[in-house]
Amino acid sequence: MLPAKTISEVISRLDEIIIHSIATKSRMGYFACLYRKMTVAVQNGINNKIFADGARMERLDVIFANRYLNAYSCKSQNTLITTSWKAAFDAVNQPYTVIQHLLLGMNAHINLDLGVAAAETSKGLDIQLMKKDFDLINDIIGSLINEVQKDLEEICYPMKLLSYVDNRSKASVINFSITAARNTAWLNAVGLSSVVPNAYDSYLKTLDSKIAIVARNIINPNFSQSLMLRTVRTFEPTNVSDIIKFLKD
Hints:
Layout: H1 7-24, H2 28-47, H3 54-76, H4 83-90, H5 98-121, H6 131-155, H7 178-194, H8 200-219, H9 223-235, H10 240-248
Helix pairs in contact: 1-2, 1-3, 1-10, 2-3, 2-5, 2-6, 2-10, 3-5, 4-5, 4-8, 5-7, 5-8, 6-7
C-alpha cells in the first residue's frame, strides 16, 4: 500500500478500514473509528489556523497516520510490524472490552508512533520549535477521549459507574493514563531527534519493547480492575459491527 499524501487521503483510507471492519465484524474497526475522529479534528484545526505552522502539522499528521496505515497493511499481509502494534492487532481476536481494544491502539500509536512522527517531521531542525503545536495536537487528543468515554457509557451503562481512565485514580477502570502517553510521546520525539543515525533503529526497538509492556498491562490488569472489566464485558453489546457503527457516528 502506498503511503497517504494528505490528511484527506488518510481519512479516506480510514473510511475503507471502517467499512471493511463492519462487513467482516472485525474489532480492528474500534480504533479506526477513534483515529478517524482524531484526524478530522486535526484537519479542522489546520483549516481554522489554530497551529503556528499548519503545513508542518499536516506533514506531522500524515507521517503519524501512515505508521498506523502501514501497520494495518502489514498485519493483513502477515509481514513484520512493531511489537506494540502486534499486541494491539493480535488482541482483536479476543473478546476484550471495547475500552481495552481502544487503549491498545492508542498505546501503540501515541506512545510510539506520535513520537516517531514528530522526530521525522522536525528532522534537521530544532524539535523544540514545534512543541507548542505538538501540545495543541495533544489537547485535541485529550478532548476526544472525553467524547469516547461518553460513547462507551451509551454502549454499556456500567461504564457510567466506573472511574474515567485518565483521572489519575487508583480505582480507574484500567491502568493507562492518556496524559502519561502524550507526555511520553514528546519525550520519545526529543530522544529520537537526537539519536545518531546508526543507533536509530536500535533506540526505536528499545522504545517499542517498553511500550509493548504497557500493552500487556492493558490486556492483563490487576485483580480489582479485572473484576470491573468483567462486569463491563457482561453488559457490552456482542455485535461487533453494531459497536463500530455506533463509534463512527
